Amino acid sequence: MRKIIIPFVIILIGVLFSSVYVVEEGTKGIVLRFNKMIALSEPGLHFKVPGIDNVRIVDAKIQTTDSSKNGMEQKFINREKNYLIVDYFVQWKITDFKRYYETIAGGNSIEDLLMARLNGRLRAEIGKLDIIDIINDANTEMKSRNSLMLRVKDALNGKQPNAKSDENISNGQFDDQSEGNLEKITSMRAFGVEVIDVRIKQIDFPAAVSKSIYDRMSEERKVFARDKRFQGYKKAEEIRAQSRLTATKILSEAEKQARIIRGEGDANAAKIYADTFSKDFEFFSFIRSLKAYEQSFKENDIMVISPDSEFFRYMKLNPNIKSDKK
Asked: Where is the secretion signal located (predicted)?
């Protein structure tokens, strides 16, 4: 009896272990029965029918695919017919696991499909812009790198009505006429994938044209610098001229006020003298004579004049004055 029970227990344990599977956090389990999806398992412990059901674990987190992972340069042509080397990446996640499994079950690679469509859409968008628009992030219009990446992301998510056919996108071919006529969207939703973000990491010119472009940009910066310096000199001269004009006005006004004050002072002094001398004319004449004597008799001067002249009237001794000498 024991010989029968032991094999039965071993078989039971084997069946139990083969029917149990664990889905880790950040992943989903696609349950397959005869290679057809019958269920989607969330993270945790689950059971399946041994020998009939298979489970395929797929990453449910946001994934990043880089254009430079294969070491191939991505060359594009902008509207100015310049070759550009663009390095970019795309972030995506699985939203419809049934469609995703149907895609990969047919032998297709989601990353290859995504990069082919992204590459073609970027080629179309870059072909519409000049290099300054592609590099510039501050442009508020639709001609900027940010708006370019947003348009590409919307196209991959099926939000743009005018896009390329799968054949044109896969081959990297586009033209303005076909873009306006085709209605099929460059969308990854048909494969159960949603694009979260598209970012351009770096834009370079081929080495053959980098030096000429650098020289041209350097000359443009020099012209810009000279123009700024000229504007600075012009502004400085305007400020100096305005300062000199202001200083001249201030000095003129000050001189005007000084002359007015001096004139008023002289007039007041003359009026005081006139009022004072009008009260005693004899005293006024005496003071005038003293000033005349002071101005006339200088050192080593010789004056020929009669002592009886009116000029010496106040120098004569007044007989009415008594002398103290005896």
From this structure: none
Residue with tokens 């469509």: 117
Domains along the chain with CATH numbers:
2-59 (no CATH), 63-205 (3.30.479.30)
User: Contact 185/78 with Cβ under 8 angstroms?
Assistant: no
Break the chain down into helix, strand, coil percent, rounded to 5.
Answer: 50, 20, 30
Contact between 47 and 29 under an 8 Å Cβ cutoff? The reply is no
Distance (Å, rounded) from C-alpha 103 to C-alpha 30?
Answer: 13
SS3 state of residue 74 = coil
Asked whether the beta carbons of 35 and 62 are under 8 A apart, the reply is no
Q: Which helix (H) or strand (E) holds 45?
A: strand 44-47
Distinct helix (H) and strand (E) counts, the chain: 9, 9
Mean pLDDT along residues 3-23: 72
Per the DSSP assignment, residues forming a β-bridge with 93 are 194
Distance CA 293, CA 128 (A): 105
Report residue 174's pLDDT band, with 50, 70 and 90 as the boundaries: very low
Tens of pLDDT along 238-292? Answer: 999 999 999 999 999 999 999 999 999 989 988 887 777 777 777 777 777 777 7
pTM: predicted TM-score of the whole model, two decimal places? 0.53
